[in-house]
Amino acid sequence: MLCVPQVDNPKLLRFLMVEPLLVGVMRKWNNNAGIVYAPDPQLHLQAFSHWTYEVTDKKLMVVDVQGFKMPAEGSAAPRILLVDPAIHCVGTDYFTSTNCGGEGGAGFDLFLESHRNPKTHYCGKACKAVRDKFKAFRKKQHEEAEQAERTRRAFSCLRVVPDRASPGGTASTSPLVDKKLGQLKPALKAHEECSKLLAGRALPVPGALFQAIEDCLKHRLMAPERVAELHRRRVEGNIGRHDWFDSMGNLTRVN
C-alpha cells in the first residue's frame, strides 16, 4: 500500500493512493540483458517483448518483464500481473539507466540473440500469432491517428483569430460554438445541483443526469416543478450535444 498525504493542503490529508496487494512469488521472465527464466519462460510474454520492438519500427522494446502469477479464482482463469518493466530505446535520453537500446542497440541485440536461438525456441508460435496481426494493428493505428487529426482540424476551424489581437487578448469562438455551449452549460449546472442535494444526504450521485434528477424526486429533495425544469435543460443539452457531433462532418472555416 502506498500512501501519499497531501501535506501542503490539509483538506486532502484523507486521500490515499492504494495499490492492489500482489501475493505469491515475484518472477522475472526476462531482463534488459536478454536473459530469460528458462524453467518457465512464458512464451507469450517473450512474444510481447518481441512485438513491442517490431510494432515501434525497432525503436522501442519492453523488457524486464516481471510480476506475479495469480491463481484461478472461481471461473476466472489464472492471470499474470506485470510490474515495473524496463524500456530499451534508440534514444539514450529516455527511460533512465535501464535503457540499453542506445549506443549501438546492445539491449535489442542481447534480447534478439537469446530469443532467436534455435536451441531455446523462444521465438515460435506465439510470436507468429502476433506477427500475423501486425499489419492490421498498424493499419488501425494509422486510421485512428488520421481520424484524430481530422477531428483536431475540425475543431480548430471553429476558432476565429482576430486580425489585430492584442498581447493580452484571446481568440473568440464562432457563433456555432457559442450556441452549443449555451445549450450544454444548463445541463451541466443541472447535474451539479442534483449532485449537491444527493451528496448532502449521503446518497450516491449517478453519472447520468436523468437518473440524478429522478433520484432527487424520489427522495423528495426537489419540487416537481423544479424536476420538470431540470428535465427541460437535460433535453436541450442532449439536442445540443447531438447537433454538435452531427455538424462535425460539415464544418467550414470561419474567416
UniProtKB/TrEMBL annotation:
One Pfam family named in its UniProt record: Alpha_kinase
Domain of life: Eukaryota
Nucleotide-binding as UniProt keyword: yes
MF terms in GO: ATP binding; protein serine/threonine kinase activity
Assigned keywords, A-Z: ATP-binding, Kinase, Nucleotide-binding, Serine/threonine-protein kinase, Transferase
Alpha-type protein kinase domain residues: 8-119
A biological process term (GO) from this entry: response to differentiation-inducing factor 1
InterPro entries in UniProt: a-kinase_dom, Alpha-type_PK, Kinase-like_dom_sf
Gene3D superfamilies the record matches: MHCK/EF2 kinase
DNA repair listed as a keyword: no
Protein name listed in UniProt: Alpha-type protein kinase domain-containing protein
Species of origin: Edaphochlamys debaryana
